[in-house]
Amino acid sequence: MKRAIVVGSGAAGSTVARLLAKSGNYSVLILEKGRNYFTGLGGPIEKIGNLFSNDEVGWESRRSPIVPDPFLEPRSFRTSTGSGKRTFVGDVNGLPTTVGGGTVHYDAKARRFREVDFITNSLMGGTPDKPAIPGTTYSDWAMEYRHFEPFYAVMEEIVGVQGPARRDGRRIVNPNPYESWRSTPYPMPPGVAQLNSLLPSEAADRLGYHAAPVPTSVNSRPYRGRPACVDCGFCLHYGCPINAKGGGVWQLHDALSTGRAELRSEVNVLRVEYAKVRDGKFRATGVTYITPDGRSHTARADLVVLANSPIEAARLSFVSGIGQGHPNEKNIKSAQPTETDPSGMLGRNLMFHLQTIVLAIVNQPIHSYRGRTSTHTLDAFAGAGPSANQFNEETLRAGILEIGGNLNPVVEANEVAAFAYGEIHKQFMKLGPFHNHLTTFTLQGEDMPQITNYVDLDPDIVDVYGIPVPRVTYQSHPYELAASAFYTPLMLEIMETIGGPGSAHPTVQTLAALALNTTLPPALPGQIDAPVQQILSATPFNEIPASAHIMGTHRAALQPQHGPCDPYGRYWAFDNLYHAGGGLYATAPGYNVTLTIWALSYIVGSAIVSGVGGRGGYSKADIDRDHPRLLDVIKKLDRDTMIARAL
Amino acid sequence: MPELSRRDFLVAALAMGATVAVSPRLEAAIRQVTSSGSSELFYLTPARARTCAAICARIVPSDPGSPGATEAHAITFIDRFLAAFELPSVVADGPAIYIRGRFSDRNGHAGDDFLSGRRAQFLPLTGHQEMSWRAQLYGVSALDHPPAGTYVSKKWRAQIGNLLPAPVSIRKAYADGLDSFDAFSKKTFGTPFASASSIEQDLMLQAAGNVVLSQFPLPAPPGAPDAAKALFPLITVHTFQAVYGLPEYRWQHRDAGVWENIAWDGDTQPEGNSIYDSALFGPGKGPNEGFGDPHVYLPHGGYRERRPVSTVGSGSGAALSRKSIAPLVKALRAQSKAAARTRKAMR
Predict the structure, then answer these.
(1) Looking at the predicted structure, is the pLDDT value of residue A522 above 50?
(2) How many domains does one find in chain B?
(3) Same domain as B277, residue B240
(4) CATH of the domain at A35
(5) B243 contacts on A by Cβ (under 8 Å)
(6) Position B49 in a domain
(7) Domain boundary residue among B200, B231, B259?
(8) Residue A337 resides in a domain
């Protein structure tokens, strides 16, 4: 049996680990930097416990115990090479470090891309060497929707997604008209709809749009041994105390249940060990990691998968001598190939979604604080589609509109304190503008890939373990700023249309609708305790994204000159070193990132277990030829799924 | 600006028709909290606790039928947070930073997992988490004595204070800040902070940086100490955490009535708001029709609402008017404009 090491236990790492362990050909060691807040993983599923609760002080107002501590593990930031070494040190879009990763506290929206989203560059007339949008590295994906579709489907079933598309005879009926075709229904129907999602959705419908229940990896029915959601109201930012939220940890549980996987938490991987083998090729031989007491250990492996987020995987590569950890800044607009990274683009094309927020306060109490974060989305602003023949390049591409949202009272009190004090503050809390009357739109904004947006190693700063910290150099492209500006008035119009005569809720009306652009970290005082706030107070307003949607750095491409990884996530110069996760994204269509990360990771895992890949370059025909072997993995390892039956 | 006397303020305040005396009820409550015992305080001295409780009581005041920071025992929350690493084992089973899940006894769970008798349960911290929280509470010196088995790179340690900001001790911020408020009060009004009138207290908080109070018709007294200014944002956040957060963080089994007052359910697990009922719809029936896989997994059941999540006006909470939220809209517009300015600058 071969030995594999997977670095990171989040959405991507758990997916790959599960497939490797289930294949029977690998024993898998999963290394996780964060803590394990679950008990009983790998045992009977109904006995799995956790240490989560509906605790706003600990999980939202204080720095959450699962997010990286910017004091111990800072990152640095600047907008361009011209702004000096850095303009900020602290939290730069850090993702949770914990067993289960970001899927412990996410709000679990599980959205697919559409057909057009994989091929937008060529639909706009671009080529791999001449991107359609100037000043970008805009590109098609290495695979298309028809390649992804079965992997979306299998992941929806493995994770447990509730959603509106259902089977009617032989047809799949999807109430969301903006989506592409699908071969299976959702395993579970949508759960309870919420007013703070329903009201704007209904207003949107009256304006001619079509909002729909949002596919969400939260159980609406008991599913695969876990209970149905009770709509407790503490979803985004909170671990689920009853295990109704789907996430990486349940695949980790599957992996551990095989008896061929081992999880080590609270270990920090220092470097990838590798050797030169032949023809300028390299082979990973294992990793060296450090335990909290500072002792280092080397674990040998036949295969290494870096699934520790786009930024951390780039950082780990750089400190291991893979790629350019300190690229030549004078030449930053060009790729800088090395022996270990022939693309010269490892760490480049870093993307975050530009999120535009519109909020509305309505007159009636609508219990914004109950239920999931949002129950509906509207895709009208994601650009023309879903099929190529419906595409036009004049329609700006932003992304989906998430409908819902609320602030819990401790956070609300901090916001209200900006304009009210004492008795008046108390009266406002009683009125509850943010916990009881709020609804919001979060418009995901497709972020253009730019070679000058990248992660490298900070030249000076190290973390508590002594490892150089990642430095992010990033600024928005005019495209996403223009899209945000274009759609904001349309979002406001929908909010202004809420309720009133002729609606399903005639007593409800919008009192105020406002646009906020908030990819920003908490701007008002007090969301975290003071010493950390002091670090954050250096933040130039709105410069540092806090979207938690992190993509790029390891673009999967057909040819080495177009991205650091092959279509199956392998580093081109290596036989056996892979990235799994959002790093492989070629572009950043405006959908929540996790379901596509899952599908990509299933593709990476199935390529490994089926022996697909390993070429020095690929044609589109190669992808088509390899595809059935990937599908065989679904049929073999996930045969108890609707998609396996359909294939 | 000439230093204003206590008398000047009283005259000015009386001219405004304001109440100048501390309400007897509040006085009594503060006395009760602080005299109930020095033994119940783990970090603050009785004098500091009095000042602290008085500030909290201005941030979330108490009214008849509407409890505030005093009734919510904000002082207990703050004192035990400051003493998070020093609480006796009969009070806390570990560092009092994160309450340990999963459930209280308020929502159909037998027993309170967070607080059993008078002993609260907390998440154990890793060595690195403990060091970081100790650094926040005690300052940079905590980094030189990391918990056993906790590695700290020398290079990282050397960066603190230059490349990385050094943590400022929250305990010291409280001690110095509370002493400063008291000294400021004695100097300006001739009386300890806790026995100053509510208007005098507000003026001192305004002087310490309360931006909302800066619209107060009276000028703030000059010479607010820096330590008081440093404490104000901290104590504000902590008061909100204490008043609106889980009562177990202040060693109470029940909320003091604040949650009901703001129409907020608090924690709701494990019952939650919607109750899944397996008997409501059969497999493939009603909302389950067309979902799942008849060969493997066929959904069944549906939801009843324990509390309304999608019904207008059937729950608790107040209706709003445009007038009632005018200050809020103004503040949000300012934020929105700032965002627009930044966006423009970025272009």
Answers:
(1) no
(2) 2
(3) no
(4) 3.50.50.60
(5) 413
(6) yes
(7) B259
(8) yes
CB contact under 8 A, B290 and A166: yes
- Whether residue B310 lies inside any domain: the answer is yes
CA dist B286 and B288 (Å) reads: 5
User: Are residues B208 and B96 both part of a single domain?
Assistant: yes
Q: Does B135 map to a domain?
A: yes
Are B13 and B105 found together in one domain? yes
What's chain A's average pLDDT? 93
Average pLDDT over residues A388-417: 94
Task: Give the CA-trace dihedral at A159, A160, A165, A170, to 10 degrees.
Answer: 90
Tokens linked to A479: 């495209």
| Residue B316: CB atoms within 10 Å | 16
For chain A, say whether B308 makes contact (Cβ under 8 Å): yes
Q: Taking Cα atoms as reference points, which of A216, A247, A307, A267 lies closest to residue A100?
A: A247
Is B266 domain-assigned? no
**What's the pTM value of the predicted model, to 2 decimals?**
0.93
Instruction: Indicate the residue among B227, B259, B291 that finishes a domain.
Output: B259
Partner-chain residue, chosen from A220, A371, A422, that has the shortest CB–CB distance to B309: A371
Specify whether B225 is located in the same domain as B110: yes
Q: How far apart are CA B193 and CA B178, in angstroms?
A: 9
Q: Does A68 touch chain B (CB under 8 A)?
A: no
Tokens read off for B62: 């108490």
Domain residues for the domain of B41 are: 6-259
Yes or no, beta carbons of A166 and B308 under 8 Å apart: no
* Residue A359 maps to a domain: no
Residue whose entry in the numeric block shows the structure tokens 């000439």: B2
Is B283 in the same domain as B208? Answer: no
Work out the minimum CA distance from A414 to partner chain B, whole angstroms: 7
Convert the pLDDT of each residue in A213-272 to its tens digit: 999 999 999 999 999 999 999 999 999 999 999 999 999 999 999 999 999 999 999 999
Question: Which residue among B318, B332, B335 sits closest to A365, beta carbon to beta carbon?
Answer: B318
Q: How far is CA B97 from CA A59, A332, B121, B249, B316, in A?
A: 11, 44, 10, 9, 32
Going by C-alpha positions, the residue among A97, A96, A140, A136 that lies closest to residue A118 is A140
10-residue averages of pLDDT along chain B (347 residues): 38 38 46 49 97 97 94 97 97 97 95 95 97 96 95 96 91 98 97 96 93 76 95 96 97 94 95 95 96 91 87 71 82 66 53
Least CB–CB distance from B241: residue in A71, A228, A410: A410
Say what the ipTM of the complex is.
0.94
Average pLDDT over residues A521-542: 31
Query: Same domain, yes or no, for B107 and B14?
Result: yes
Cross-strand partners of A290: A268, A296
- Indicate if B255 and B277 belong to the same structural domain: no
**Is residue A240 situated within a structural domain?**
yes
Ramachandran region, residue A95 (left: φ > 0; alpha: ψ -120 to 50; beta: rest): beta
- pLDDT of A521 above 70: no
Closest-CA distance of chain A to residue B120, Å: 14
- Partner A, chain B 141-170, Cβ-Cβ below 8 Å: 149-156, 159, 163-165, 167-168, 170
What is the extent of the structural domain holding A591? 1-111+143-163+234-351+548-647
Mean pLDDT, residues A19-42 taken together: 98
The β-bridge relationship of strands A468-473 and A75-78 is parallel
Q: What is d(CA A325, CA A340) in angstroms, rounded to the nearest whole number?
A: 12
Q: Which residues contact A117 (CB under 8 A, 6 or more apart)?
A: A145, A382, A383, A385, A587, A589, A591
Residues B184 and B327 in one domain: no
Q: Which residues of chain A does B233 touch, with a Cβ-Cβ cutoff of 8 Å?
A: 525-526, 530, 533
Confidence tier at A278 by pLDDT (50, 70, 90) = confident
Angle at A406 between CA A400 and CA A412, to 5 degrees: 140
- Whether A4 is covered by a domain: the verdict is yes
> Residue B342: what pLDDT?
53
Distance CA A641, CA A602 (A): 14
